[in-house]
Amino acid sequence: MCKLTLTFNSQWQNALSFMQEQGRFMTRLLTDRIHHAGDAHCEHGAMPTNPVLAINALSANTHPFTPYEADGMIIGECLHYQAREQFIRMQYFIDDTGRKDDRGDPILALYQKPFQGPREEWVTGVVALKIRYGLLSRQGTLEYVSSNAVPNWQQVRSVSIWWLIKTIDRIPSFSDSFYFDGERKTVHDHHGYRSWHVFIALRERT
User: CA 103 to CA 170: how far, in whole Å?
Assistant: First the structure.
């Protein structure tokens, strides 16, 4: 029993470290990209910001093995890409990595992909992404709505993002619960789960 307990504790600590590391990296990535959405300083002769191409929604990917929301987003900004700095519209979405876990189920990840380039895996283990966009109400407060309720994308001031990370390997005799978008869920698939929720302002619209 002692050996089994030690094995479980070791597996859980490794899983927890993986999820925390992935969650922190994704927080930094999304904060930086959304905060600088619309930054066009690298475009010669252009305005310093491009409000038209700053941010938009990407149609959600659907996977039969992902019972959670998988929203996507498009952000336009100056990035170092293909050995030079350029204004580029980058897509962010969840997709299948093509790899399998120890049970043979697909492993998902957050990807970034320019419209005219290959996709690049950024954060492994992301299985859910729920995005809401903050619009300034008549009362002067931010109201967060889904992409199909945004009347004008230049009015988006902030973004609310929930995401969920799942461990790659299973932990025998383990079930987990997590809080996601106002609802607590319990799963019994022997994977660990952790959710994150952040609000990120667009720098040029605060």
Answer: 8
Please calculate the CA angle 33-36-37 and round it to the nearest 5 degrees.
Answer: 80
Structural domain for 151, as ranges: 2-205
Q: Return the closest-CA partner of residue 34 out of 149, 157, 126.
A: 157
Report CA-CA distances (Å) from 108 to 14, 62, 71, 76, 98.
Answer: 19, 12, 14, 24, 8
| Residue corresponding to tokens 């320019």 | 114
At 174, the amino acid letter reads F
> What is the per-residue DSSP string for 134-178?
EEE-TTS-EEEE-GGG-S-GGGEEEEEEEEEEE-SS--TT--EEE
- Give 10-residue mean pLDDT values along the chain (206 residues): 54 82 93 94 84 88 64 94 92 93 89 92 94 92 94 95 90 79 86 92 76
Amino acid type, 72: G
> What would the two tokens of residue 60 be?
């959600």
Question: How many residues comprise the chain?
Answer: 206
